[in-house]
Amino acid sequence: MRKFFVAIILVPLLFSCSNYQKVLKSTDYEFKYTKAMEYFEKEDYMRAATLLNELQGVFRGTDKAETINYTYAKSLYGLGDYIMAGHYYRQFVKTFPASKLNEECQFMSGYCYYMTSPKARLDQTDTNNALNEFQLFVNLYPSSGRVAEANRLMDELRDKLVYKSYLGAKLYFDLGDYMGNNYLSAVIAAQNSLKDFPDTKYREELSFLILESKYIQAVNSVPAKKEERMREAIDEYFSFINEFPESQYLSKAVKIYNSASKDIQFEEVN
């Protein structure tokens, strides 16, 4: 009985494979085109992509070329091959500059880079590429219904870049005095992040990192520079609490202030 049911399941599969092999071997390209579109509509992206890849060269310069190239890019996307899908979306825009499909293809070019954008600790080339493609999309199609989504995705990608820079600044902080004054490097890295991305959601973390780094740098300073650097740390404290009066780091910030104040006889706060 089990063999009977297995046979029932396998027969349609074998028949389907046999039909597909016939399509692959056919020299009737109109027939192949029709079958490729059928496979695509059935979300059989592997078979559709295989046929469309061949048909790109066959129908180049004809009225079917635009549909073939567009559907091929969509098939690759359906397969999860975002690198190649993005390549062909970009190629489509260059090949068919007057196409009504360019708005979608330009957006999808950015979205494919977005899908391959890695975790913040890794190389962010694809993240920057996604930002460039989305920005080009917004510039070219400012009235598009996809602009809001593009802007949302760009904000997410920017936050990833800021987080990566925060991790870099934190690494300098964690290295401390190892092979040099890494606290100064931490301050510079965090300040550059805030300069480049002033509205980031990591602004509080970066700001406190600057305060803490300046304070530790002051503590470790030679006597001739200690008072000046303590005053800089205190100035940084006031800037921090003015911007983040209810910060999760408030108690730590107050401790830093009180400690720095003792060195230069400022009034302590509770």
Q: What is the architecture of the domain at 162-270 at the second tier of CATH?
A: Alpha Horseshoe
Task: Report the portion of residues in β strands.
Answer: under 5%
| Class from secondary-structure proportions | mainly alpha
Q: Which CATH class of the domain at 162-270 is shown?
A: Mainly Alpha
> What do we call the CATH topology of the domain at 162-270?
Serine Threonine Protein Phosphatase 5, Tetratricopeptide repeat
What is the H-and-E element order?
HHHHHHHHHHHH
Radius of gyration: 29 Å
Shape: elongated
The CATH superfamily title of the domain at 162-270: Tetratricopeptide repeat domain
Q: What proportion of the residues is helical, as a percent range? A: over 70%
Topology:
Blueprint: H1 2-25, H2 29-41, H3 45-58, H4 65-78, H5 82-95, H6 102-116, H7 125-140, H8 147-175, H9 182-196, H10 203-219, H11 223-243, H12 250-264
